[in-house]
Amino acid sequence: MKKSCENNLKEFNLDYFPGRESGFILYKKEMNLLDKDRANNFNILRSSIESTIKKLFGDKFLQKAKNDEILPEETISANLRLANYFYGKKLTKLILEEKIEELLNLSEQNLQKFMTNEKRTIARILELIGVHILVIRPEIYHFSGAIEKFLSTRGFGLIDSFDHQLNFQEYWALYSEHLIEKEPFNDFPTRTLVYLASKCKILIFKRDRGDLDISHLKGERGSVVLGTLRGDIVTKESLYLLNSGLLSREDIFFTLDPINSYRYIIGGEIKSDNIHKKYDFPFLFYAITGIHMPDYGEAEKNLCVLLDSRQLKETIYKILVNNDNRVKKFIQDFDAISLVGSGECEVYAITKGKQKTFLKIKRVDSCANFKAEAFALKSLGALGAKVSRVIKQSDIFIITSENLGGCLNDRPYLFLKKTIYEDLSKDLERFYRTKLNGFGAIKNARGEHEDWIDFFDDIKPWAKTIKSRSLADVESVEILEKYWRKNSPSLRGVKKSHFVHGDFCLDHIFAFKELYSGIIDFSDAFAGDPLMDLAYFKLKEITKPYGPKTFSLLKDSYEKFLTIGQNKTKLINLYMIYWAFRRVAESNDVDIAKTFAKKLERLAKNLETIV
Predict the structure, then answer these.
(1) pLDDT at 537
(2) DSSP 497
(3) Is the C-alpha dihedral spanning 219, 223, 225, 230 positive or negative?
(4) How far apart are CA 438 and CA 449, in angstroms?
C-alpha cells in the first residue's frame, strides 16, 4: 500500500459507532443486504472514471493512478486538464485569470437556460407549499433506500424519485460559485469528474410548511452530527465502506480520489485553504459529500435545473390532485399557470382552455386562514352569494373557481356606479344571515373569544408601538386613544356574531360587464360584527378624493337591510381606529405602514371635534 493511502488510514477508526467494534458489527449485520448493491455501484462508478482518465491521459497514467503513484505536480496538471475537458478552454481560462465579472455573466446565462417563466412559476409554487429536492450523489447512490427511510421517519412524504445523470451545464448551474473560489483547480475538477461519472438519485419530498427550512437535517460533510443526513447517515455508511473489506481500500481511494487531489491536499503536498482540518474526517469532507440538498430559498433554482417542464407539471399535479377527482378535472393538463396577485398570499391562475382555476398559497409569515376562508365561501355560497366555489383547501393553500370579471379598483369609471352597490347589498345581507358562535379567528367553525370586546385587546399595545417607533403622528394617535377610551364600552352591546370579510375593499369587489359579479379573497375572514368591513372600506378610501362618495354608496347598500344610526356610526368609528392601529403597527411593509399612517392621521382629524 502506498504512502498517500497509509496516511489516510488512521482517520477511519470506528469510534463513531456506538460500542466501537460491536457497533460496527451491528451496523454490518443490519446493512449487509446492501453489499451487492454497494459493490455494483462502486464498480460502475470506477469503470466510468477509468474510461475518462484513459481517454484523457492514456493507459500509463491510469495505471499510475490506480497504483497510487501519481506525484503532486502531476495531480495539479491533471486537474487543469480535467477542467479544460469539462468546463471548456474559454471558461477555464477565465477562471485562471480570475475574470470574475465575465464568469458571473456566463454562469447567469447558463442558469437562465433552465429558468423559463413557466418552470420558475411552478418551482416557486412547489417551494412555497413545502416541496424539497435532494440529490443522492453517485458515490452513495446505492444508499438511496436508507436516505428515503431517514426522511420518512421524520415525517417527510416522498412525492417522486428518479435516476438522473447530470451533465456539465446542470452541474455548473448548481455549483457556479465554486468555480470562482480561490484555487478552484486544486480539487474541484476531481469533484466534477466523480459527480458526472455515474447516475444520481433525485428525491422530491414534502413536509408541513412549518419545516420549510430543513437545513438542520443536512449536517456537515466529513463530520459527526447525529440525526443528520451527512453527519450521521452518510458518515456511518462511508466508514462502513472503508472498514468492511467489501472493497479494497485502493479501489475505494481511486474511485473517490482518482488523481490523488484530496489526499495531497490533506497531506499538505498541494496548497489549500486547510478548511478540511476542522472536520472529523478530512478525506470524507472532500470525497464523500453524499448528498446535495439546497438550503431554504434555493429549491426553486434547483427544481428548475434538475426537472424539466413535464416533470414539474407532474409534481404539482400529484400534490394538488392527490387522487381527488374533484380537483383533477380543473388542473389536469393545464395550458398555463401565472402569478396574478401577491401580498400575504401569492395567487396563481391555472388556465385550461377557457377555464380558469385559482390557487392561493400563503407565505411563511402570513396569518391567512384558509380553513376560515373555505368555511365562509361554502356557507355564503349555500345562501346564494356570488362567491367562488372551493375546490380544495389545506392549511397551506386553497383552490377556488373563477369569479368572472375584475376588481373595481382597476376600473375607476365604475367607482360611483350605483347599481353595483345595490347588487352588492344582497350579498352583504347574507353576511348577517350567517350566525356564528364566538368572536375572532374562526377555529372549528367558531370564534376564539366568548365576548366581542376581547377581540380588541391589542389596541393599547398597537398604540404604544406606533408612538414608541414614531410610525405616525403622536398627537393623532392620542386623539384616537381618547375616542377609544370614551366609546369602547359600547362594544359590549354587540352580542351576535356573523362573518366579517376582514379585507373588504375595492380590490375584492368584482364586476363583469359593468355589473356586480362577486366578492373574493376571504383568507382574513373572522367572526364578529360585519360593520367591521364597512369601517375598513371607509378607512381605505379616507384619503382618496372619491372616498366619501364611494363610502356613501356602500353605506346606502347596507341600509337596505340595516339601519345605521348614531350607535352604529360610533361602532364604525371604533372599528376604523382598530384597523388603523393594526395596519400601521403590524405591517412588515414600510410603504404600507406609511400609507395607513396617513389614513390614521386623517381619521384623527375627522374625530377630533367629536372627542
Answers:
(1) 97
(2) B
(3) positive
(4) 5
- Would you state the pLDDT for residue 343? 84
**pLDDT computed for residue 15 by the predictor:** 56
Question: Given a cut of 90, is residue 210 above it in pLDDT?
Answer: no
CA neighbor of 281 nearest in space, from 235, 232, 215: 235
Q: According to the model, what pLDDT value does residue 212 have? A: 60
Among residues 355, 404, 395, 353, which one has the least CA distance to residue 374? Answer: 395
pLDDT of residue 7: 45
The CA distance from 611 to 609, in Å, is 5
Distance CA 250, CA 4 (A): 10
Q: How confident is the model at residue 342 (pLDDT cuts 50, 70, 90)?
A: confident
The backbone region for 268, taken as left when phi is positive above 0, alpha when psi lies in -120 to 50, beta otherwise, is: left
Helices (H), 322-458: 325-331, 370-382, 418-433
- Residue type for position 423: D
Render 217-274 in DSSP notation, one character per residue: GT--TTS--TTSIIIIIIHHHHHHHHHSSSS-HHHHHHHHSTTSHHHHHHHTSS----
Cβ-in-10-Å burial (0-12, 13-18, 19+) of 203 comes to: buried
Q: Are 42 and 255 in contact (CB under 8 A)?
A: yes
* pLDDT higher than 50, residue 1: no
Alpha helices in 114-234 (DSSP H): 117-128, 144-153, 168-175, 188-195
DSSP state, residue 552 = H
- State the amino acid at position 196 in one-letter form: L
| C-alpha distance from residue 469 to each of 383, 460, 567, 591, 600 (Å) | 45, 14, 33, 15, 15
In this prediction, residues 275-286 reach a mean pLDDT of 90
User: What is the β-pairing status of strands 526-528 and 498-500?
Assistant: antiparallel
> What is the DSSP annotation of 96-121?
HTT-HHHHHHHHHHHHHTT--HHHHH
Ordered domains of the chain (ranges, CATH): 16-309 (3.30.70.141), 405-608 (3.90.1200.10)
Q: What is the pLDDT of residues 469-528, one digit of tens each?
A: 999 999 999 999 999 999 999 999 999 999 999 999 999 999 999 999 999 999 999 999
Residues written for the chain? 611
The Cα–Cα gap between 511 and 406 comes to: 6
Average pLDDT over residues 41-60: 96
State the Cα–Cα distance between residues 285 and 236, nearest whole angstrom. Answer: 13
Task: Provide the grid cell at 295.
Answer: 438550503
- For 491, which DSSP code? G
Q: Residue 245's pLDDT band (boundaries 50, 70, 90)?
A: confident
**454: phi then psi, degrees, rounded to nearest 5:** -70, -20
198 and 141 Cβ atoms separated by less than 8 Å: yes
Q: Give which of 80, 69, 57 is closest to 254, Cα–Cα.
A: 69
C-alpha 370 chain-centroid distance: 18
Grid cell 366578492 — which residue?
519
Cell for 403? 369569479
Strand 345-352 and strand 336-342: the pairing is antiparallel
